[in-house]
Amino acid sequence: MKTRNIIQFTLVFLVGFTAFAQEKKWSLKESVDYALQNNITVRQSLLDQQIAEQDLKSAKGNFLPTVNASASQNWNFGSFIDQNGSRISRDSRGNGFGLNAGVTLFNGFRNTNLQKQAELGIESSKIQLDILKNNISLNVVNAYLNILFNREAVKQAEEQVAISQKSLEQVQELVDAGARASADLLVSKSQLASDNERLVNAENNVVLSLLNLSQLLQIPSQGFDIQNVDIDLTEAVLAYNNSNEILSYALDNRPEIKGAQLNIDNAELNYQIARSAYLPSLSFGVGASTSYQHLQGQDDVLPIVTGFDATSGEAIIELQKNGFAEQIENNLGYNVGFSLNVPIFNGFRTDASVKRAEISKDRIVLALEQEKQTLTSNVEQAFADAKASLIQYEASKISLESQELAFQNEQDKYDLGVSTSFQLEQVRNRLINAQSSFLNAKYNYVFKTKVLDFYLDKPITE
Asked: Looking at the whole model, is its pTM more than 0.85?
């Protein structure tokens, strides 16, 4: 019974959570923030930062000494030289133990440059993350605005369907009364069918745009929805007269430029690292070692001359215990030393490596210039697009107002019987086209101004 209650509670919780998720309407800021926190590519980039931090840790470790311990077990068969320098014809086994430490004192500043390079790697990974976040933010904003645009298109289509339906009913009454020809009824029915088709297409576009945004956020599209935002363009003006100010800021602050400049610094360090192979290297090392040797079939003893026989003059030998502990202690030795390596000739490999690093640095300098040219082109194009979108918006607004007046005038003429339904529908189609153009111009202008804010590092979610 207890298990059943737990299962029931879990099901209720999941159903409630799903319902909450379906009822939630995402704001633009929530959408962008969620994408920046949960996007898989962003999370991968954060892991790249952690890798860069480990690279720095490794580079710093090059300045520290290395310490290694060793142990060995060996067997000898036949003749061999023992620890005392005597040749022994007997099988034996032995152990060796050692402890060594070493540190690089100088290697042409290679370690120093490797640490600087690792530090640049962390900065570079952060810049790449900024670039990625900027692009994701802009894509989410574009997708969000696309949903709002399609929803307004649905509203317009619904209004036109309602007008066509009402017009059809009026024409039907006039035809039934004999005041209008049946051809007018066919025109009205045709217009209603076209408006219904336009409405279905608009509704499908809303579904597809919601799907696109949910995929950008990498969340299930089931029940996904956004908040409706009223975009007020009563004062549609550009904040800048030209692109110079935007471009100046972008060239100084955009992460793409900073990343390209870091690449130059990194290339210079690569060049210095390659040149370090010309210089000598100096290292210092200390060590300790000991060993144990055992003759198979014989006790571990050591013959010691304790004196000489007074009569025969022969040496008096005493066998002392020489087991594992005794040999380890007695055979313990130490070493200390310096090692100097001076490069003289290595088949021109160092020359080739230095030349490659120099050429690579020149290429990366050109890459910075290319990045600046690309950014300049993008900013100037963005400003031109924003300026053109403003002009288009103002023109489409005037056109819409004119078409609304024209339609109202044609509707009045139709009501007075001096205009046909065909003429009325022609005028209304021009009105529909004007509405569509105005809606496109409106959201195109909004997005183009967001792009300018993007290059100025201004918030694009407001």
From this structure: no
